[in-house]
Write a structure and sequence with these properties.
Helix content: 55-70%
Radius of gyration: 45 Å
Shape: flat
Structural class: mainly alpha
Strand content: under 5%
Order of helices and strands: HHHHHHHHHHEEHHHHHHHH
Amino acid sequence: MAVEKHVEAKLAGMDEKKENSGDEGLGLEILQIIKESQQQHGLRHGDYQRYRGYCSRRMRRLRKTLGFRMGNRHKFTGKKVTVEMLSDNRYLLLVLMEAERAWSYAMQLKQEANTEPRKRFHLLSRLRKAAKHGEHLGRLCESHRVDAKTKLEAQAYTSYLSGMVQFELQQWKAAMEAFNKCKTIYEKLASAFTEELAVLYHQRVEEISPNIRYCAYNIGDQNAMNDLMQMRLSAGGGGGMMAEKLETLITQTRAKQAATMSEVEWRGRTVPVKIDKARIFLLGLGDTEAAIAQAANEDTKERLYETLLAECRDTIQAVREEIKSDAQRERAVDADTGKVSNLQYLHSYLTYIKLCTVVKRNESMAHALHGKLKEPQPDESKRGPRPQDLIRLYDIILQSLAELSALQGLEEDHTFQKEVSLKTLVYKAYRCFFIAQSYVLVKKWSEALVLYERVLKYAREVQSKAKSLNNRLQDLPDVQELISEVNAEKYSLQAAAILDTGDAAEAPQQLQVKDNKPLCERLEAFHLDPALLGKQPNLVPFPPDFQPVPCKPLFFDLALNHVAFPPLDDKVEQKGKGGLTGYIKGIFGFGS
């Protein structure tokens, strides 16, 4: 309450200053700057080292721009930003980048501490340094030169860093107080400013809330675990830092609860559970199944199924390694009683959980695909769901059921074997139904009809065998609904087959369209050619065929050979015989 009154007073004072004066003092959008820098420089992919390098480079640029040198190249002289220097908001930004650099280094060391525990000491050192820089920023922002909004953001930022330090030191009460103060300030700021800024503040509150609930659980609030599960459920299908943080906190919470769990009972046999990983997994199994049942959409359900399967595989691997290490000391099967060992039975139980989860996940996916299959597809260019997709899912289900029936330690459990065989019949019926649907699509009517009859045979067999096991198989799909759907599909199939056969008898010329004649060459006859409605209708031959054309004529004067010309002797001058005298006259020109 005291924090809320303080924040409200600050906001009221800020409004009065805006009304009375145009000078609002120095301002710095602390949270906005942090979020934008983190998203643009590595934290979108969890790369804290890249973000730390960015903070160092930006600090160097700010110091150079402000002339805030830390000595020279020969000697380092440490300097701190003081209140008297606050003539530019870049001095505040410089201190903020120092805190962010130390924080990002601490988060990098936290990732590495999973494999190198000694780095945890360095991590705590860097977190304390980040909190120290945050406190320095808070003291600077208390100056009258800084506006009220920046003061509040600096207080929230300082509280957040202080809470992180206390959280790592496992001082839950102090950490919870710091986180609550940070949350209160951001909630009040979100209600006082624009929607764009309010989104940032609300995101920060959502990031802090899991830490608050985890602190509450460690203090003694037993409802905090349920709150963490609800937060994971409301996170949706996405991953990212928020989902990873929730998973880590939930795992840590279960690890503390698992200390009280010592045994598990399955199918009338009690088995001690000594492996911590198996205890944690079995303890959280009910919560995860409840979260799956409450999932709002298919994406969230699919993500929870994948998380459960991954945890189950890791647990099975841990049990398998324990079995190998105990192989010398303990026999897998007792030769006197015929019972498998406790570890082997636990392994069978975990394998049963894994295979049942695979069956439920694929059944959920098949149900969603079946619903989409019935809906009309608005865009034909995009590939929609097909019956072949569901056939693949039911193949995986049948394979899992076959593995269930072969689990070690359950070979003599006749009730269990009957349950598995009945489930196998149910899913065989559904698989056969979708195989028939795929034949209908390619107009193989007789094959589809035979398969529909096989579906009815499976369904009636299930109904006759399910009477003795009715109470134990309530989670199976409704076979009666499948029978009704098959009967309706049979009538539709018979009608389609008759229509298809009738069209071929009444119009045999339709089969002649396969000669690939274009439409322009068969305009005198009517044919139902579905290719004309496709993307490449056969309208005209293209490219067109070559046709003969007349060439340019060549003229030959053949008549001249057969023309008889008149004699021209009388018109041709006869040359006389002049002898020597005439020759001489001709030379000298006397005769011309």
